[in-house]
Specification:
The structure holds 2 protein chains of 2 kinds. By secondary structure, chain A is of the alpha+beta class. Helices cover 42% and strands 18% of the residues of chain A. The C terminus of chain A is likely disordered. By secondary structure, chain B is an alpha/beta fold. Chain B has 2 domains: 129 residues, Alpha-Beta Complex (Aspartate Aminotransferase, domain 1), CATH 3.90.1150.10; 258 residues, Aspartate Aminotransferase, domain 2. Helices cover 40% and strands 16% of the residues of chain B. The mean pLDDT of chain B is 96. The chains are: A alpha+beta, B alpha/beta. Chains A and B meet through α1 and α3 of A and α12 and α14 of B. Chain A: Belongs to the NifU family.
């Protein structure tokens, strides 16, 4: 079976990340909150972010989705810690490019999250990967406005 | 059978198990579309030249053909629409306010497709009516006694699928209609998942309205039909205005054409109608009860094989016709779908436009395999092997 393409997307680290997500749950105190959906597939993601001195100092997500969306949310929440909203906005742009193109020069700023680049070979799954990132950018720029 | 579908020559290794979403098309349909555009293209109901007259005849003969196919009393009861969604929205917008008074009551099953759910939900809002969504069983099939019990005195309208699109169960429409009519309620039936898998007789069912799509019965996309009982259509006003649908237009007022063209404003999808006629003709010539039984048996073989896989939930039951929904515990349906796609197996994963059902089952989505007349044993075997492989892959077994 030719599963190389699959293996590139479902790296062991991604399967593990989805099964044991970091920052999964809810925060008692937070400054930003958003619920986003992928209406074509029913994925729901609830994201809370707490800020201190202009940087993200805590974050949590909950909801449900596929391996890609859960792993991506877990990696995203880990990578945005200690970052400013402006930095996060840039990261989200870079991540989006990476997932669509498969390679970008500034992938380094994404840290471990760059492991998701294999998704670019599966156009139908791009939205799964970008859901959490777009939620972060949206909530940090729109100050807690939700789509509910 | 399969050799009549050029799609499978273009995709010789593809296992296509998504006919509930849309069917593949027989050569007979493609020939009819090509013939229409090469030889017969003219606008209907207008031109006085022979070609236009002949095309109008052909177009109207499909109306009779659809009436016969559904066992309607007459062609006057058949309205051409863009498909099931369009048909159901037409009933909800045009007939809904007549059927459901302010403060009335609408009943739908908890397993309806969004297209037979939202139009009624929105009608209920407009009419400040009670909108009742009835329970489902844990396997996703409709709880029929609960549905019947919900049809109380004061119920004005009941909307149900004849065959549901996730669990694939067939509702006892005639029984539901009897209860509804006893209570003075109208019944609208979504036949999208039924027409390609069973014989339909709207008079025997007693349905007041019945909707279906051409593309789910081996016909073109963008065309479908609405059956409406003649005495009810007489009370139903048009909701789209324009060419074709009038009797007379004056500066300050207009009158409407009689019959179904009242609801077919503008140049209709003529090629679609001709194509749907060709598809229905092909279907009636080529697909008999025995062929449909084979299709059902394939679905049951799949259900049986899937039930033998550990950590796997199958929705529906062995009465479910051609649709098999399932989930592997701990593996999201989208991941399963991607895995299967890599092995050239096309199935559907998602909420299947049935979010109220997903909410009742407490799941975000299912994997759904659905059969058409071209599927075979090999398709079942390949899918079952691939599902087993997906389970091993995502659970990190072996």
């Amino acid at each position: 079976m030719a599963l190389t393409k699959l293996d590139q997307m479902y790296r062991a680290v991604i399967l593990d990340e989805a099964q044991h997500p970091r920052h999964h749950g809810v925060l008692a105190d937070f400054d930003h909150e958003i619920t986003v959906r992928n209406p074509s597939c029913g994925d729901v993601l609830h994201l809370q972010i707490s800020e201190k001195d202009g940087r993200v100092n805590d974050v949590a997500f909950s909801g449900n989705g596929c391996t890609i969306s859960q792993a991506s949310a877990s990696l995203m929440t880990d990578q945005i810690l200690d970052k400013t909203p402006a930095e996060i906005e840039q990261m989200v742009e870079t991540f989006s490019d990476l997932i669509i193109k498969g390679d970008v020069p500034d992938a380094d700023r994404l840290g471990d999250a760059a492991v998701l680049k294999g998704v670019h070979q599966f156009p139908a799954r791009i939205k799964c990967a970008t859901l959490a990132w777009k939620a972060a950018a949206q909530v940090l720029t729109e100050k807690g406005k939700t789509d509910d | 059978m399969r050799e009549q579908f050029p799609f499978f020559k273009a995709h010789p290794n593809l296992v296509y198990l998504d006919t509930a979403a849309t069917s593949q098309k027989p050569q007979a349909l493609l020939d009819s579309l090509q013939n229409y555009y090469i030889n017969d293209n003219a606008n209907v109901h207008r031109g006085l030249y022979k070609l236009a007259y002949d095309t109008t005849e052909a177009y109207e003969s499909v109306r009779q053909q659809v009436a016969d196919f559904l066992h309607a009393q007459s062609a006057e009861e058949i309205i051409f629409t863009h498909g099931t969604t369009d048909s159901l929205n037409l009933v909800a917008s045009a007939f809904g306010p007549h059927a459901v008074p302010t403060g009335g009551r609408i009943v739908v099953s908890g397993a309806e497709h969004h297209s037979n759910f939202i139009p009624w939900q929105q009608l209920a809002k407009r009419q400040q009516a009670t909108f009742v969504v009835t329970p489902v069983h844990s396997d996703g099939t409709v709880d029929v006694p609960a549905l019947l019990a919900a049809i109380t005195p004061g119920t004005n309208l009941v909307a149900i699928a004849q065959v549901t699109n996730v669990a694939g169960d067939t509702l006892p429409v005639a029984k539901i209609v009897k209860k509804a009519h006893d209570m003075g309620a109208f019944v609208v039936v979504d036949g999208a998942q039924a027409v390609a898998h069973m014989s339909v007789d709207v008079q025997a069912l007693g349905a007041d309205f019945y909707a279906f799509s051409g593309h789910k019965i081996y016909g073109p996309t963008g065309i479908g039909a609405l059956y409406g009982r003649a005495d009810l259509l007489a009370k139903m006003p048009p909701i789209q205005f324009g060419g074709e649908m009038i009797s007379e237009v004056r500066d300050q007022g207009s009158t409407w054409a009689d019959g179904p063209i009242k609801y077919e404003a503008g140049t209709p999808h003529i090629a679609g109608v001709i194509g749907m006629g060709a598809a229905l003709h092909w279907f009636q010539e080529n697909v008999d009860a025995a062929a449909l039984q084979v299709e059902h048996e394939l679905a049951n073989q799949l259900r049986t094989a899937l039930r033998a896989i550990p950590d796997l939930t199958v929705y529906g039951n062995d009465d479910s016709l051609a649709t098999v929904s399932f989930n592997l515990t701990g593996i999201h349906p989208h991941d399963v779908a991607t895995f299967l796609d890599e092995q050239q197996i096309a199935i559907r994963a998602g909420h299947h436009c049935a979010q109220p059902l997903m909410a009742r089952l407490g799941i975000p989505a299912t994997v759904r395999a659905s059969f058409g007349i071209y599927n075979n044993q090999d398709d079942v075997t390949k899918l079952v092997e691939a599902v087993q492989a997906a389970r091993r892959y995502f659970h990190g077994i072996d």
